[in-house]
Structures are given as C-alpha cells and as structure tokens.
Write a structure and sequence with these properties.
Elements lengths: L1 H14 L3 H23 L10 H14 L8 H27 L17 H20 L1 H12 L4 H8 L3 H24 L1
Helix pairs in contact: 1-2, 2-3, 2-4, 3-4, 4-5, 5-6, 5-8, 6-8
Length: 190
C-alpha cells in the first residue's frame, strides 16, 4: 500500500512538471510493469515471445512522450501502461507481418526480438481488431478488456479506475468475453 501511495504521489508531482518524479514512478513500478508485460506475452509459445524488458521500456517511453499525463493514481497509470503495451505489440506484430511479406523492417522499434508462428501474430492482431470494435460498440466493456486482459488488473484495481463496483465489473467481463468470442468467430468466417 505504501508503494501505491508513493506512485500516486510521484504521478501528481510529474503532472506538475517534476521530471525526476517520472524516474521514481518507473523505479517503483518496474517489477509490476514487467509482470504485466510477461502476462501479455504469455500467449506465445516458448521461443516465440517478445522481450518483456524491451516492451516495458517502450511502453514507459510512450507514456512519457505523451502530452496527456493526467493519471489519477497507480491503478490509472497501470491502465494507461496496459493500453500502451497493446499498441506497441500490435504495431510490432504488424511490422513483423509486413516484413515477412517483403515490407521494410526499419519500422521495428523493439530491436532484437523474435516471433515464431505467423498464426500467433494474426491471432493477436485479430484480437486487437475485436477489442477496437468493442471499444466502438461499448467503450466501458472495451476498456474493461484492456484493463483486465491486456493489463492483468484485478477487479479491485479496475474498480478504483472506473468507479464501478466489482459485481458490475464481473457481469461486464462476462458480456465482454461473449462479445469478443462472437466477433472473432464472425471474423474467422468472413
């Protein structure tokens, strides 16, 4: 709890222009960020996974470079980080797919990383597309998927970010999973 309070305090200081506060947030959150990255990459088989350290560094850099640093607390920061990781992975996987099709590999930002089977890439890109459609259809459900699936956040942490009760989040999670399953099945059949 002390760490969460410290991260929240440093986020507030960073919002007010203290550049050293970002470094302190990174140091305090680093282990948790690596866990999130590891969870995101766990769907890939051994030998196919991206480098978790590179993903954490890229996500943090993306957040620092963003103009909007309006993170309310630790949970909100981790939600933003989860979303950044999703975008980085999708960009990387799309670039990797383009490279296999003769595209330019200079666009890859996660140097030295390797992926295996192209089907895993397509599966992740398909999931991302379904999440984007879900966000358009129902923003609340889409963000829940980002927080829970992409960010590995608990219902309690998501409740802090959204202000929704845990029972409501659990019902929404069931709806979101059903919607995603249906959307991905429809995508396969078209």
């Amino acid at each position: 709890m002390q760490q969460a309070n410290a991260i929240t305090r440093y986020l507030s200081e960073a919002k007010n222009g203290d550049d050293d506060a970002f470094r302190l947030v990174y140091e305090l959150a680093y282990d948790d960020l690596k866990k999130i990255a590891h969870q995101r990459l766990a769907g890939f088989r051994r030998g196919e996974t991206l480098n978790t350290t590179a993903l954490v560094h890229e996500a943090f850099l993306k957040l620092i470079q963003a103009s909007d640093h309006d993170w309310k607390d630790r949970a909100h920061f981790f939600a933003a980080t989860s979303r950044a990781m999703r975008f980085i992975l999708v960009d990387y996987l799309r670039a990797k797919t383009a490279q296999k099709r003769g595209g330019n590999s200079d666009d890859l930002t996660l140097s030295g990383l390797s992926l295996g089977v192209e089907e895993r890439i397509e599966e992740f890109i398909s999931l991302n597309s379904a999440i984007e459609k879900l966000l358009e259809w129902n923003d609340r459900l889409g963000k829940l998927v980002e927080y829970r699936f992409i960010g590995g956040m608990t219902y309690e942490e998501i409740s802090e970010v959204t202000g929704l009760s845990e029972p409501t989040l659990k019902r929404d999670w069931a709806r979101a999973r059903t919607w995603l399953y249906s959307a991905m099945k429809d995508s396969e059949n078209s």
